[in-house]
Amino acid sequence: MPPVTSLTAHVHQRLATALTATLPEPAAADPLLRRSDRADFQANGILALAKKAKANPRDLATQVVAQVVTDDLIKDIEVSGPGFLNITLTDRAITETLAARAADPADRLGVPLAAHPGTTVIDYAQPNVAKEMHVGHLRSAVIGDAVVRILEFVGESVVRRHHIGDWGTQFGMLIQYLDEHPHELDRSADSAETGEEAMSNLNRLYKAARTHFDSDEEFKTRARRRVVDLQAGDPHTLATWQRFVDESKVYFFSVFEKLDMEIRDADIVGESGYNDMLDETCRLLEESGVAVRSEGALCVFFDDVKGPDGNPVPLIVKKSDGGYGYAATDLSAIRNRVFDLKADTLLYVVDARQSLHFKMVFETARRAGWLNEDTKAQQLAFGTVLGKDGKPFKTREGETVRLVDLLDEAIDRATAVVREKAAKMGLSEEEIVENGRFVGVGAVKYADLSTSAVRDYKFDLDQMVSLNGDTSVYLQYAYARIQSILRKAGDARPVAHPELALAPAERALGLHLDQFGELLLDVAAGYEPHKLAAYLYQLASHLTTFYDQCQVLSDANPPEVVENRLFLVDLTARTLHRGMALLGIRTPERL
Ligand code: ARG
Fold it and tell me: Where is the Arginyl tRNA synthetase N-terminal domain (predicted)?
């Protein structure tokens, strides 16, 4: 089935044609159509067009109205104010369009694919080996996962890359220590290791290695030599390094599972994955003159990047001691993503505090010709998670908050909320536990996704698990309530009846449902999941008004009204479910 054209698009087309025919000089004309409370839509574009054509806006509006035929789509069109148009649609057009959305066999709800899909490599969820995941790693994972789902839904080819921190001088000390105490990471073959155990092993090793490093000069020397061995690819050193990576992955996967997020091993290509490219990256930059030698280091300079003393701050691609840093790796990753993975868009879901780094890296890649008009890179920068006091989120002891602790607390709180209502619903203990997870993790994700990514936000669990307001729980309850109505409906099925007149609350709900497709294309084009969250919240609010004003299962309703209202709430539930799934949030059937 072809994608469903929205009512907005239909009306837009009608008005644009009428405008072009009316204007003294033919031109493409945008009627600037908006949803409106007075009628279904208001067109505000005539004012500006009249000014350009030196015409009277009310006259022009009147002429446009004369061109528009009222029919099955447009019930009424009239001039208002200085030259606005108020447009009211027929009830039939609304119900028929929604019926077409509901009938979409692929369960896409009639959402079209993007006009020009391409290949996007998205760099997100990038924790560091042998280190805890903390609240800072939450945002990249949550936003990245939502953007992946949204892009794939509109037809983009997406390659996921988890650029984990698995390389660098810090590993010398760890490798040397483990080599000297090889049994400290022995795993028992029979019992699978938990993520918590893996992390506690890594913490213990890290502390022990650190103590040796700080107190024993000879160990320090041996550890430094290990860095050189690692970079040279010495097999034994690499094997020991690999044990740290594997142990960390056990931990990462356990955290991602708690986050209810699928991370695939094949998509984990850490900093180490670009090691073989670093030499050539530097050679290419130096030969092309993009990078120059400065005080022994290989550097790229920018006119607009200066330190506090007014001197230029370069991007260092290779240090004076010959070592490569973070920038060389990112530049090599760009070459891989553009030339091997054939991406036309590179997206980096990374903390806004790394914006200068990416600005310099992208500019360097452009000068080198690796990025251009057709192959673009963008940082999807996100802000900081703050505590209730408005300062960067810390534990009471002033330490960084571990991601698992934060999720566990959210799940505990949510389970308490779910339990309170559970008795009435007759939920089993198993269902309570599962719903507690979905509600708790959903609350954390939604709070993160419902503010625009660049902004900081306060981590406030009381607010996040509240049943009222702009929270995921509110949306999850809206969904579950519909499912409960559908269960109670007995033999009555959701069936659209285009011949029925609609109540105002039904029209408002229906017109909002019809916007889903256009909204998603917009969300995908701008990488803005927060707009999807806002849309879903409005959808649930329309639903609440609908319940207030229209009874679904009432004996007073003729059967076709019951069917049509069941049809409306069923499509609302499917839209909520689809939208929440695109945000990575579950919608339990019974809550
Ligand atoms: N591992 C880094 C961190 O924890 C983030 C990596 C971001 N991605 C990149 N391509 N540099 O800060």
Answer: 9-89
pTM for this entry: 0.96
In this structure, the residue with its CA closest to atom 5 of ligand 1 is 126
In angstroms, the CA 419 to CA 553 distance is 27
Distance from residue 165's CA to the centre of ligand 1 (Å) = 7
- pLDDT tens digits, residue range 486-495? 999 999 999 9
Query: Which residue range(s) make up the domain with 522?
Result: 407-582
Would you say residue 50 lies in a domain?
A: yes
Alpha helices in 123-194 (DSSP H): 135-153, 170-180
Ligand 1 pocket, residues with Cβ under 6 angstroms: 123, 126, 128, 163, 165, 330, 348, 350
Distances (CA, A) of 455 to 100, 148, 351, 452: 38, 20, 11, 6
Examine residue 206 and state whether it is found in any structural domain, yes or no. Answer: yes
- 69 and 206 both lie in a single domain: no
> Chain centroid to CA 585: how far?
11
Query: Ligand 1 pocket check: which of 139, 274, 315, 350 to mutate, most ligand atoms within 8 Å of Cβ?
Result: 350
Both structure tokens of 563? 């069917």
| Same domain (yes/no): 69, 182 | no
CA of 232 to the centre of ligand 1 (A): 23
Which pLDDT tens digit goes with each residue over 24-75?
A: 776 778 899 999 988 999 999 999 888 888 889 999 999 999 999 889 999 9
How is the chain split among helix, strand and coil, in percent rounded to 5? 55, 10, 35
Distances (CA, A) of 36 to 8, 282, 352: 12, 57, 37
Substitution candidate for ligand 1 out of 353, 354, 360, 382 with most atoms within 8 A of CB: 354
Are 462 and 562 in a shared domain? yes
Please tell me whether residues 69 and 207 are part of one structural domain. Answer: no
Q: Which amino acid, 486?
A: L
H or E stretch covering 122? strand 119-123
The domain that holds 559 is classified in CATH as 1.10.730.10
Q: Is residue 145 in a domain? A: no
ipTM: 0.98
Q: How far is the CA of 292 from the centre of ligand 1 (A)?
A: 25
Number of domains in the chain: 3
The CATH number that applies at residue 47 is 3.30.1360.70
Which of 89, 114, 138 is the last residue in one of the domains?
Answer: 89
Residue 499 inside a domain? The answer is: yes
Look at residues 40, 73, 89 and tell me which one is the last residue of a structural domain: 89
